[in-house]
Amino acid sequence: MIKKVVLSSLSVAVASTLMMGTAHAGATLDSIKEKGFIQCGVSQGLPGFSNADEKGNWTGLDVDFCRTTAAAIFGDADAVKYTPLSAKERFTALQSGEIDMLSRNTTWTQSRDTSMGINFAGVTYYDGQGFMVRKDLGVTSALELDGASLCTNQGTTTELNMADYFSQHGMTFEPVVFEKSDEVVAAYDAGRCDVYSTDASGLAAQRTKLAEPEAHIVLPEIISKEPLGPAVAHGDDQFFDIVKWSIFVTVEAEEMGLNSSNIKAAAANKDAAPAVKRFVGAEGSLGENLGLEADWAVNVISQVGNYGEIWERNVAPLELPRGLNNLWSKGGIMYAPPLR
Amino acid sequence: MTDQTKSSTPAKPPFWRDPDKRALVFQGVFLLLVVVVLFTLIRNTMLNLEARGISSGFGFLETSTGFKIAETLIPYDESSSFFTAFLVGLLNTIKVSVIGVFLATILGFIMGVARLSKNWLVARLSAVYVDTLRNIPLLLQLFFWYFAVLRPLKNPKQADNFFDIIFLSNRGLYGPKPIFEDGSGLILFALIAAIVGIIVLRIWAKKRMENTGERFPVFYTSLGLIIGLPLLALIGTGFPVSWDIPELKGFNFRGGMVMTPEFSALVFALSIYTSSFIAEIVRAGIMSVDKGQTEAAYSLGLKPSWTTRLVIIPQAMRVIIPPLTSQYLNLTKNSSLAAAIAYPDLVSIFAGTALNQTGQAVEIMGMTLAVYLFLSLTISSLMNWYNASKALVER
Ligand SMILES: N[C@@H](CCC(=O)N[C@@H](CS)C(=O)NCC(=O)O)C(=O)O
């Protein structure tokens, strides 16, 4: 464990030492094209977000946003290799170039964005931190948690928000902080903690791993803003743009009514609306602007789907409400800048 | 005579022909090169980190952490600085290591001696202990102990209650904590006096034995001193000590002293795992002492227990100490597995949480590696010093 951290830290150091001058712009994209796939950092198993089955096939919302990028660059959403990372390992992995992009329920915060040499490419899930407790504790509000023991993951915003929330409300708590999620779940299940705290989406996903999922409830309080999204390392603006716009096109497609089953027909339609023609690359230069093929967005939508489809496939089974993640036109805040 | 020496001394050669001076020059040049290379490396790292927008420098050590730590030996809260968090982690690492080394040594010696026992069952049991524990990865043992400790324990509300002062639950073992009030300084003084007394006593007893051959019961006298003197002081000052007894309030016990499941599991796992290696070292040490030594001791009329204590163990120690040192080093370094079971050691807090919150991998890993290097060198030099004091003195 320590060896892994030491190694990636060393590689940050070595990379920083040896790279005389700055790497030429476009280094990440060049190496991706040379390798023929994207190395994408994901979680170590969070159903609905990034989870591997027995055969090693990864699925989930975070995984799908690695796939959108691969579809945009290669026209092949499968051109991705995954690196499972704990919360603690993820930023060093990105800084050291071990992964090309990080798509691992990672909260976009000011200090991560500015001081770690990384850029967030957008928000794929608007979340907030919640608390889960055993029903038989009889607790109905987070304000009743004074003196409780809280289990959570190391190196997360959760650790910070918890401290803020409890001190703000004049309450105390005992943090029990594990490196890996499996131990958090096991320890909470064994009664080491009264409370399991993490992003509300994470709670819903991890709950499926508990011995008796129905014996637990999620408290109504959401104590933070957790905009989750993919991040890339500084130094390759073109790649940054590609990741960013591979997210936006899924939102835009949903708004325009384009999805994986009708996009091909729309692309072939000579009389489509001008916006659709620009989207599919029949007109304009959206693909060229990004250094991609004209049909990049068609590949993204036909192979991965629009945002609504990605949601239905991955998140809906967890019975999470769409809420803030609905389109802006339907009461949510998912909004893509114009494609023109 | 002097004249002769003088005349045979050749004229001073030019400095480039003098091997000593030449070596000095070469070493100077080499040192300069090392410094230049180091300087370039560091400068380069800084420049590149900056170019990539990763913050660098040690300024972060003064900012407040914003996270809480469960077990701390010094005052700490979320508004404390990263440097304080560093110290908290360091002290927690030292705490498990010291206790772990202590327990591993005792267990290891018992198991090592037991393996050589004439009693077949005892010897077999010890062999099974050693062979099993040495061959199971430490991380697995750590999880085993953690969840083995945790699972059978009850919730705080149904905690096992011992005399209303000690409570055992899945939050840990809570017990009363002594609070020293005014006038208790004398107790500390008595304790120090007892320790000094014991050291003086040992030196005196050794001298006496060398001179007269008579033995003095140092162990029991020491035990008496270390318990008796502070006790006397306690009675003399009229018990200026009160107890903070843990109490169930809401979800958890409050007050008192606690031994958490994380700490206990880590100490268990580290000391049991390491003890299996120490047992083998002890066995090897004892077997290295020539059989003739025992026979000679018996023929002088020494009891078997004295033979072991006075003849065999002291000679075995010379073989035992060097490999024992590396086991101590291993234990200290292995304590960095703590993060896996939520014990807040240096690696977990500083190289884990703090690194992740600040993103300053280079500085933080540098400091952490320096600490482990420092701890290792300290243990090595203590053990070397002890080894030197035990080494064979030719008379
Ligand atoms: N969004 C938070 C928390 C992210 C996080 O690590 N969540 C945990 C608990 S839901 C997780 O992803 N665990 C899955 C894993 O480690 O594989 C952050 O960015 O700091």
Give the H and E element order of chain A: HHEEEHEHEHEEEEHEHEHEEEHHHHHH
Bound molecules: glutathione
Shape of chain B: globular
Oligomer: heterodimer
Name the poorly predicted regions of chain B: none
Description:
- The complex is a heterodimer of chains A (340) and B (395).
- Chain A has 340 residues and is α/β, with parallel strands linked by helices.
- Chain A folds into 2 domains: 27-124 and 229-319, Periplasmic binding protein-like II (D-Maltodextrin-Binding Protein, domain 2), CATH 3.40.190.10; 127-226, Periplasmic binding protein-like II (D-Maltodextrin-Binding Protein, domain 2), CATH 3.40.190.10.
- Chain A is 40% helix and 16% strand.
- In chain A, strands 4-1-5-14-6 form a 5-stranded mixed β-sheet.
- In chain A, α3 (61-74) crosses α9 (237-256).
- The N and C termini of chain A lie far apart (47 Å).
- Helix content of chain B is 66%, strand content 7%.
- In chain B, strands 1-2-3-8 form a 4-stranded antiparallel β-sheet. In chain B, strands 4-5 form a two-stranded antiparallel ribbon. In chain B, strands 6-7 form a two-stranded antiparallel ribbon.
- Chain B has a domain at 82-154 and 260-389: Orthogonal Bundle (MetI-like fold), CATH 1.10.3720.10.
- Chains A and B meet through α1, α4, α5, β9 and α6 of A and α2, α5, α11 and α12 of B.
- Residues 43-46, 86-87, 105-107, 153, 156-158, 181, 198-199, 202, 206, 226, 228 of chain A line the site of glutathione (GSH).
- Glutathione (GSH) binds next to α6, β11, α8 and β13 of chain A.
- Chain A: Belongs to the bacterial solute-binding protein 3 family.
- Chain A: InterPro entries: Bact_solute-bind_prot3 (IPR051455), Solute-binding_3/MltF_N (IPR001638).
What's the arrangement of secondary structure elements?
The complex is a heterodimer of chains A (340) and B (395).
Chain A: H1 2-18, H2 27-35, E1 38-42, E2 51-52, E3 58-59, H3 61-74, E4 80-84, H4 90-95, E5 101-102, H5 110-115, E6 118-120, E7 125-127, E8 129-134, E9 148-153, H6 157-168, E10 173-178, H7 181-189, E11 195-199, H8 200-207, E12 216-218, E13 226-228, E14 231-233, H9 237-256, H10 263-268, H11 274-280, H12 286-290, H13 296-303, H14 307-314
Parallel strand pairs in A: 1-4, 1-5, 9-10, 9-11
Antiparallel strand pairs in A: 2-3, 5-14, 6-14, 7-13, 8-11, 8-12
Helix pairs in contact in A: 3-9, 3-13
Chain B: H1 2-8, H2 19-51, H3 82-115, H4 120-134, H5 138-150, E1 160-162, E2 166-169, E3 172-175, E4 177-180, H6 185-212, H7 218-236, E5 241-244, E6 247-249, E7 252-254, E8 257-259, H8 261-287, H9 291-299, H10 304-334, H11 346-358, H12 361-390
The structure holds glutathione.
Glutathione is lined by residues 43-46, 86-87, 105-107, 153, 156-158, 181, 198-199, 202, 206, 226, 228 of chain A.
Signal peptide (chain A): 1-25
Domain Solute-binding protein family 3/N-terminal (chain A): 37-266
Keywords (chain A): Signal, Transport
